[in-house]
Amino acid sequence: MEKSKVRPWKLLTAGAVLGAALILAAIAGMRFSDSRPFCSSICHVMEQAAVTHVNSPHADLACNECHAPHDIVAKLPFKAKEGLRDFADNIRGIDVPLRAGLETRTVVNNNCISCHRNTVQNVMMAKEYCFDCHRSVAHQKKTPVSFREAADE
Ligand code: HEC
Ligand code: HEC
Ligand code: HEC
């Protein structure tokens, strides 16, 4: 009887290559959908946020390095939920600028701390969120200069 032409090692190699390609594609998709080009091109409600982000000291970061949990298990459901909401807002054409909800504030704040741990680990927080003081490190200042009581509101 003729031997099968398909060698098991060939199948295994093909499987491994395909698996690796799928993983790389998933990572590339995740990276791209975290980024400024994606967020600002898909959603016009994000335009202002994207413009102010370009001029910030964090311009090199992807949007979701602040706006989604870093831990992948928490990130996927959060990203899906927020993405769907932004998508719906975009279609309904809601007013900008948007205001961050409580959950987003917590997520963003945890990310500030995780990147700046060395700077802030011995600091007592006088406010609830880092961006209560560092308002403009990511986007524009919230209050016009003539109405501000502190420099960075
Ligand atoms: C350095 C961290 C950081 C980066 C990077 C960043 N943001 Fe933000 N973002 C913030 C903070 C802080 C706020 C304000 C939260 C508040 O005022 O309550 C905010 C608020 C927002 C808001 C309004 C509230 C909301 O969550 O819907 C939008 C929209 C937004 N960002 C979109 C973006 C987009 C789009 C990008 C990428 C182009 C981006 N952000 C990059 C930190 C960041
Ligand atoms: C993914 C990591 C990361 C996250 C998340 C992040 N930062 Fe930063 N941050 C950096 C890096 C890197 C720099 C240095 C940028 C530079 O000097 O070019 C920086 C710079 C800064 C500076 C100095 C700004 C200046 O004017 O030079 C402050 C203040 C700061 N971050 C606060 C925050 C706050 C508040 C948050 C949350 C809203 C935050 N960061 C989120 C990485 C991060
Ligand atoms: C009560 C106001 C306040 C709060 C809240 C606050 N900061 Fe600051 N932070 C300052 C001031 C003032 C400075 C020194 C001036 C500057 O560099 O902006 C500073 C400096 C920094 C720097 C160094 C900036 C540089 O130029 O090197 C980083 C990074 C930073 N803060 C991150 C954070 C993070 C992360 C949090 C949240 C855990 C936080 N801060 C909470 C007021 C605050």
Write the layout of secondary structure elements.
Elements: H1 8-34, H2 36-42, H3 47-54, H4 63-67, H5 72-92, H6 102-115, H7 117-120
Helix pairs in contact: 2-3
The protein binds heme C (3 copies).
- Percentage of residues in helical conformation: 55-70%
* Approximate strand percentage: under 5%
Can you summarize the main beta sheet? none
Mean pLDDT: 83
Number of strands: 0
Distance between the termini: 82 Å
State the order of secondary-structure elements, H for helix, E for strand.
HHHHHHH
CATH architecture group name: Orthogonal Bundle
Can you walk through the features of this model?
The protein has about 150 residues and is mainly α. It has one domain (about 15-145): Multiheme cytochrome fold. It is built from 7 helices and no strands. It has helices at about 10-35, 35-40, 45-55, 65, 70-90, 100-115, 115-120. Helix 2 runs antiparallel to helix 3 (about 45-55). The radius of gyration is 22 Å and the shape is elongated. The N and C termini lie far apart (about 80 Å). The mean pLDDT is about 85. One heme C binds next to helix 4 and helix 6.
Could you write a compact summary of the structure shown?
This protein has 153 residues and is an all-alpha fold. Helix content is 56%, strand content 0%.
Features:
153 residues, mainly alpha, 7 helices, 56% helix, binds heme C
